[in-house]
Amino acid sequence: MACTLEDLIGRISGKRFGVIGVGNVMIGDDGAGPETVGQLERLGFSLPMADATEVPENYGGWVPKQELEAVVFVDAVDFGGEPGECRVIPLEKLMVSASATHRMSLHYTVMYLRDEWEGDAILVGIQPKSLKLGEGLSDEVAAGVNALAYLLDETARREP
Known about the structure:
Rossmann fold; six-stranded mixed β-sheet; about 20% strand; globular; 6 strands; single chain; alpha/beta
């Protein structure tokens, strides 16, 4: 069901890609997506990015307007891995095989994109440790967010 991050690099290398963080920063590790966007901003990421919070469906039209060849959605997804582990989750399996707090709206966002845009939509799930209201990111998920942000930034900086 899940791919490696090497697969992510292969899918975005040499392409104009963007990043959309999905999640609620008030619910522990569910804030992994927005925090990834924040970390990319701190790194000076040069490609389009957006913090969609809990409403990725509001960004379906944003993707084609950015003239992207690929878009990476980042969200906390319980795929049974170790806390902080990052995996590419096949979007076809999103509704039936992965547990994410925004999976229904993200599913419809991707369906919309497939009708309106010819690029590659990719979901990177970060395994949460805790989804308790009022908590920040766990140390494990913060480390996963940082590793993913550096990987995305490094990939964007490479020559095509």
